[in-house]
Automatic annotation (TrEMBL):
Family: Belongs to the complex I subunit 2 family.
Annotated GO MF terms: NADH dehydrogenase (ubiquinone) activity; oxidoreductase activity, acting on NAD(P)H, quinone or similar compound as acceptor; quinone binding
Any GO CC annotation of this UniProt entry: plasma membrane-derived thylakoid membrane
Subunit structure: NDH-1 can be composed of about 15 different subunits; different subcomplexes with different compositions have been identified which probably have different functions.
Lineage of origin: Bacteria, Bacillati, Cyanobacteriota, Cyanophyceae, Pleurocapsales
Name this protein carries in UniProt: NAD(P)H-quinone oxidoreductase subunit 2
Assigned EC number: 7.1.1.-
Keywords: Membrane, NAD, NADP, Plastoquinone, Quinone, Thylakoid, Translocase, Transmembrane, Transmembrane helix, Transport
Biological processes, Gene Ontology terms: ATP synthesis coupled electron transport; photosynthesis, light reaction
Gene that encodes it: ndhB
Membrane topology: Multi-pass membrane protein
Catalytic activity, reaction form: a plastoquinone + NADPH + (n+1) H(+)(in) = a plastoquinol + NADP(+) + n H(+)(out); a plastoquinone + NADH + (n+1) H(+)(in) = a plastoquinol + NAD(+) + n H(+)(out)
NADH:quinone oxidoreductase/Mrp antiporter transmembrane domain: residues covered: 131-424
Chain ranges passing through the membrane: 16-36, 43-62, 82-103, 110-128, 134-153, 165-188, 208-228, 249-275, 281-300, 307-325, 331-355, 376-398, 410-431
Subcellular localization: Cellular thylakoid membrane; Endomembrane system; Membrane
Length: 538
């Protein structure tokens, strides 16, 4: 077999065209900055956004790819990975819109910031489709290291330096724990690195390895839970969110979290199919702790960024309900909620950036009376916060309804009831901010609002912020009212993905074949491809 045939049939490199476009965009940003210097800041952000949008278009063209496997099985461009990669790329595009004015006002290089963010985007996109341990770990580290750099990007700000140091130390520990877990998987499978090969080897192995497999499961879940900010692996979140540059926080809360959930789904339903009961139990505990602690502690926060940090912890608990359900509706609800969460959360952070640029503070008390000075900002922040709280008819309401319905259908009655209770509690701290902005009398204005500067959108970098705010506001409003296309997209991404078909079919086939265990391998003992074949025969 000559090299050209190998590239065409085995590497199938066309599946990473979207990532290739992001790499080219990254090179344009770096080289353009080297050649043109600071003057390149006028066009580089828009070039980066254009590259990301072209990458999303390439992802759309790759939908229903008949040969999604590439690079000898290391990367899988199935429909599920396409949706998660699009969420990561779109979150970066919106984040760059809100970054231009913020980074320029800090006096640091905008091109370098965008280059680091594009590097993190690459890591998140490859992580969303990684199907092999080395690919997964390198992608995870690319995302993590770029995130550390962005967190400490404001070198003159002591809070940014402190946040970066905490994030680096806790993140390095998390990475080491995750690496130990995947190394155990490598050993237990006899030296396999592809996830489906690991699943097949573990199914053929003796039951004596169950303890080692359980240990590997715990370590891998610890690494994943750190990435999605699930309790008790959330310790970094409040401090990093408060001290980091706000655009970085926005990216971490959406892009990084989406990549973490993509990794969780892909690893748990393939490599850990034999211990599905155990990982369901662990994630149930994580969901309960995240929903309770995230929403309860958020009630006491005085900083808007810390409140949104604990809010994101609670949101991770809600999304985990769909993961635990393990059904078509469950996985679809995860995808749908992350799609709408992208706009409502990034919209909220856009408003926080705009307010901090004009007042220099993010204290919740300083928002008092804002409606009388800045109606657009008040409207945008109110809609995004109410959507995060699940108020109809906004996007967050339909996202939570879909999650809770999927959990109820799967028999997760306790989790769903707890989710409803904590969601009602979350409405309090969201509406508290809205009430403070809207209801306060003129004499009750905060000092920051009394000294509010004249609203000027023609300042350098303010137009992108305005576009990001309006885009998030419109998407958050319309995604709830016109949610059917997003429902369809989320459902199709799940029902057409082979690994999820096998994971969902397995228990049904086992229930219909009660006597198979005595004479043949059970479905849980089969590889993914064998499970699909048996399901078709049934």
């Amino acid at each position: 077999m000559d090299f050209s045939t190998l590239v065409a049939s085995q590497l199938n490199a066309g599946t990473i065209l979207p990532e290739g476009i992001v790499i080219i965009t990254l090179m344009v940003v770096v080289i353009g900055d080297l050649i043109m210097g600071r003057s390149s800041a006028r066009w580089l952000p828009y070039a980066a956004i254009a590259g990301l949008l072209i990458s999303i278009a390439a992802l759309y063209l790759g939908w229903n790819n008949p040969t999604p496997m590439s690079f000898l099985g290391a990367f899988e461009a199935d429909n599920l990975s396409i949706v998660f990669r699009a969420i990561v790329a779109l979150s970066t595009a919106v984040t760059i819109l809100m970054s231009v004015r913020y980074v320029e006002q800090s006096g640091t290089s905008l091109a370098e910031f965008i280059a680091i963010m594009l590097t993190a985007t690459l890591g998140g996109m490859f992580l969303s489709g990684g199907n092999e341990l080395v690919m997964i770990y390198i992608s995870l580290e690319t995302l993590s290291i770029a995130s550390y750099l962005m967190t400490g990007y404001m070198k003159r700000d002591p809070r940014s330096n402190e946040a970066a140091l905490k994030y680096l130390l806790i993140g390095a520990s998390s990475s080491a724990i995750f690496l130990y877990g995947v190394s155990l998987l490598y050993g237990l499978s006899g030296g396999e690195t592809a996830l489906d090969a690991i699943a097949a080897k573990l199914a053929d192995a003796s039951g004596g390895q169950s303890l080692a497999l359980a240990i590997a499961l715990v370590f891998v879940i610890a690494g994943v839970a750190f990435k999605i900010s699930a309790v008790p692996f959330h310790q970094w979140t409040p401090d990093v969110y408060e001290g980091s540059p706000t655009p970085v926080v926005a990216f971490l809360s959406v892009g990084s979290k989406a990549a973490g959930f993509a990794l969780a789904i892909r690893m748990l339903v393939t490599a850990f199919a034999l211990v599905s009961e155990q990982w369901h139990f662990i994630f149930t505990a994580l969901a309960i702790l995240s929903m309770v602690l995230g929403n309860v502690v958020a009630l006491a926060q005085t900083s808007m960024k810390r409140m949104l940090a604990y809010s994101s912890i609670g949101q991770a608990g809600f999304v985990t309900i769909g993961l635990i359900a393990g059904t078509d509706a469950g996985y679809s609800s995860v995808v749908f909620y992350l799609l709408v969460y992208l706009f409502m959360n990034l919209g909220a952070f856009t408003c926080v950036i705009l307010f901090s640029l004009r007042t220099g503070t993010d204290r919740i008390a300083e928002y008092a009376g804002l409606y009388q000075k800045d109606p657009l900002l008040t409207l945008g922040l109110s809609v995004c916060l109410l959507s995060l709280g699940g108020i109809p008819p906004l996007a967050g309401f339909f996202g939570k309804i879909y999650l809770f319905w999927a959990g109820w259908q799967a028999g997760l009655y306790g989790l769903v009831l707890l989710g409803l209770i904590t969601s009602v509690a979350s409405i309090y701290y969201y509406i508290r901010v809205v009430k403070m902005m809207v209801v306060k009398e003129p004499q009750e204005m905060s000092d920051a609002v009394k000294n509010y500067p004249e609203i000027r959108w023609n300042l350098p970098g303010m137009r992108p912020l305005q576009v990001g705010l309006v885009l998030s506001l419109v998407a958050t409003s319309l995604a709830g009212i016109l949610s059917n296309p997003l429902f369809t997209l989320a459902t199709n991404s799940v029902t057409t993905t082979p690994i999820l078909k096998a994971a969902i079919i397995s228990p049904q086939v086992n229930r219909s074949l009660p006597n198979v265990k005595n004479t043949h391998k059970t479905v849980a003992d089969l590889s993914v491809s064998e499970q699909l074949e048996r399901a078709k025969r049934q």
